[in-house]
Design goal:
Layout lengths: L1 H21 L2 H13 L10 H15 L3 E6 L14 H10 L4 E3 L6 E3 L2 E6 L5 E6 L13 H12 L15 H6 L11 E8 L2 E6 L6 H5 L9 H7 L13 E7 L3 E6 L13 E6 L3 H9 L5 E2 L7 H5 L4 E5 L4 E7 L9 H10 L2 H8 L4 E3 L22 H10 L6 E7 L10 H13 L3 E7 L2 H9 L5 E7 L5 H9 L15 H12 L3 H18 L2 E7 L2 E5 L2 E2 L15 E2 L2
Parallel strand pairs: 1-10, 1-11, 15-16, 15-17
Antiparallel strand pairs: 2-3, 4-5, 5-7, 6-7, 8-9, 9-10, 11-19, 12-19, 13-17, 13-18, 14-18, 20-21
Keywords: Signal, Transport
GO molecular function: peptide transmembrane transporter activity
Family: Belongs to the bacterial solute-binding protein 5 family.
Length: 567
């Protein structure tokens, strides 16, 4: 395997040099991103040389069942609950399992580490019957105590395994369960171990999507022994019950996993090894796929989809439109603290042009920060009109008739909702220039980009969100509830009325009531424009025709347990 990867890296270097020689400014931008990506390992403890050695040893024993999954950026953390990064969950989905799971191609809940469950008539008590005979990758037993330890770790900032002093933040736990231990809105009252393989969750109040939460990859179960052994470095030493075991992580290069021989499902996994390889450039990933150096590529440029369909050696895959890409506005920084300025920018962005130019029919302009078809989607709101005159009037009303200067932070990696962020940023820059706003594009590596936007260093910024449980709360509360400002709410948007509506919807059991509350929240958000939804995309990706049983999940993170290679 080391020989194979070495050839690939040599090949990619040659391609990069050719592109650099033949291209103009566009390639200089790509080179700048690539160069910054290579320094992301600063401050990390994992030794990249160990990753190479493990790759060689593992590759020799794995034979042909070694799958290489290429993606645009590295994972931020392998401690799933402390990150919202999709590149992280793509990997942790293979290592860890949750009490419940989703069907292969939908958000329909099914059994996971719990084979059965019961819900009390009042909706306040959930009892889960756990699988027996399950072991973690470190050989210790999975049981009810392990489940309790994990949930208490996320809920209690003072828990010995919370690692809050080391910077761990469990924003998704707070979002999905109404806060943390001691908070008024925290819905989990107590967790009771009935016996080794039965556990009971008692709630303070109903939560309309509790079972869906229990299937989310954020709330998978880590070995308590591993938490004890590794402490705050658990993010680089993951130990779960999933089909694959962690082997090594060479930052900004590859993460290597190997088959867990004692996996609880007989005959699975079918692969011996999975390598998550970082190749920042979309075109370079496609070249690698066509040459047979990789087996799956995410972040396919939509314009390449038609060609893929004509190639016998490749297979085109699509995910459901379960996302939205957006232009975020830091509402705590002037002049973006003024709703008039935010509305002016909203009217200046030509979403239809972005969708038509970059998505080859695999996207539609976005109105709301939640995908169409979701519970409570407000279809009475219309797309902000692309109207430069209106934009200029609003800017003048806000006191900026002479224009202004602003920073526009752009993502360095392709994401399912935005396969070509660099070009999107240039389109936005041009649109803003038409109304007198000079936008300076700022580029960062992926991990620092996430860290700095969470810290509020940005003005305008580009990101997106993909659903992971099929419920609108995951979009609206994660991105726009005031309690998440500085974590998943990178617009630092705070509105008491919106918070109240979202809190009520979270706790309502009647789905029609929830839908009405979400529609009202979207009306306020639409008017105040803390973010500008750009598009809902239908992400495209490609595999070698040798890859069998691969089913892309709407959440963007799917198990590879049943995947095999026919070669």
């Amino acid at each position: 395997m080391r020989y194979r990867l070495t050839l690939f890296l040599t090949f990619m270097l040659a391609i990069t040099l050719v592109l650099a020689a033949c291209s103009g400014d566009e390639d200089e931008s790509a080179e700048e991103v690539d160069a910054t990506e290579s320094s992301e390992s600063d401050g990390e403890e994992t030794d990249g040389s160990e990753g190479e050695g493990d790759s060689e040893a593992s590759g020799e024993s794995a034979g042909d069942q070694v799958l290489v999954f290429a993606r645009g950026g590295d994972s931020e953390s392998l401690d799933y609950a402390s990150t919202t990064d999709g590149e992280s969950s793509r990997v942790t989905k293979q290592i860890y399992e949750s009490l419940l799971d989703f069907e292969k191609d939908s958000f329909e809940v099914k059994a996971g580490l719990a084979h059965d469950w019961e819900v009390s008539d009042d909706g306040l008590t959930y009892t889960f019957m756990l699988e027996e005979g399950v072991t973690f990758h470190d050989g210790t037993d999975f049981n009810a105590e392990a489940v309790k330890t994990n949930f208490e770790r996320w809920a209690d900032p003072d828990h010995e395994f919370a690692f809050t002093d080391d910077g761990y933040v469990y924003s998704m736990y707070g979002t999905m369960f109404g806060g943390f231990k001691g908070d008024e809105g925290h819905v989990i009252k107590e967790i009771n171990v009935v016996n080794d393989h039965e556990i009971e969750f008692v709630l303070n109040q109903p939560l309309g999507f509790f079972l869906q939460n229990m299937a989310m990859s954020y709330f998978a179960i880590t070995s308590p022994a591993a938490l004890e052994e590794h402490g705050a470095s658990i993010n680089e030493n993951p130990v779960g019950t999933g089909p694959f075991k962690f082997v090594s992580w060479s930052k900004d290069d590859s993460i290597i996993l190997e088959k867990f021989e004692d996996y609880r499902k007989e005959g699975l996994p079918k692969l011996d090894e999975v390598i998550f390889q970082v190749i920042p450039d979309n075109a370079a990933r496609l070249i690698a796929l066509r040459s047979g150096e990789i087996d799956i590529m995410d972040g396919l440029n939509p314009d390449d989809a038609a060609g893929i369909e004509q190639e016998e050696s490749l297979v085109l895959h699509t995910r459901a439109a379960n996302n939205f890409g957006y232009l975020g506005l830091n509402t705590q920084k002037a002049p973006l603290d003024d709703p008039l300025v935010r509305q002016a920018i909203n009217h200046a962005i030509d979403r239809s042009a972005i969708a038509e130019a970059l998505y080859a029919g695999y996207a539609q302009p976005a109105v709301n920060p939640v995908p169409p078809g979701y519970l409570g989607y407000n279809d009475e709101l219309e797309l902000y009109e692309y109207n430069l005159d209106k934009s200029k009037e609003l800017l003048a009303e806000a006191g900026h008739e002479d224009g202004l200067e602003i920073e526009l932070w752009t993502m360095p990696v392709a994401r399912p909702y935005m396969p070509d962020p660099e070009t999107v940023s240039e389109i936005i820059q041009n649109d803003l220039g038409e109304i007198g706003i000079t936008a300076k594009i700022v580029r960062e590596e992926w991990a620092p980009y996430l860290e700095k936007t969470a810290a509020g260093e940005q003005e305008l910024y580009m990101l997106g969100w993909s659903g992971t449980n099929g419920d609108p709360d995951y979009f609206l509360s994660s991105l726009l509830h005031g309690s998440n400002a500085g974590s998943s709410n990178r617009s630092f948007y705070e509105n008491d009325e919106v918070d109240k509506l979202l809190d009520q919807a979270k706790r309502a059991v009647d789905q029609e009531e929830r839908a009405d509350l979400y529609k009202k929240a979207q009306e306020i958000i639409y008017e105040e424009s803390p973010m500008i939804p750009l598009v809902h995309s239908e992400p495209v990706l490609a595999t070698s025709s040798d890859v069998k049983n691969y089913v892309p999940h709407p959440s963007t993170s799917e198990s590879l347990a049943e995947v095999e290679l026919n070669r």
